[in-house]
Design brief:
- A six-stranded antiparallel sheet has the order 1-4-5-6-2-3, with no helix packed on it.
- About 0% of the residues lie in helices and about 40% in strands.
- By secondary structure, the chain is an all-beta fold.
- The chain is elongated and about 55 Å long.
- It starts with 5 loop residues before the first strand and ends in a 24-residue tail after the last strand.
Length: about 80
Amino acid sequence: MATHELITLSRDCEAIMIPSGERVTLPAGIEVRVIQTLGGSFTVATDWGHMLRIGSEDADAIGEEIALRISPLVPRSY
């Protein structure tokens, strides 16, 4: 996904307002622009001028897939 691309949320999703940290629910159908992707989370901006962080668990709401990192089990030697 290109940053600053206008995206319509496919479903309601939880987000955290920047910089206040207030948790909000963004409704399905709202348009956002992805400003930054980092570590599986997405910083988005709304037409209202709000910046919010959408976590990887809600990536599908903006059309993204996050690959789960599975670490192989390494036997410990004692």
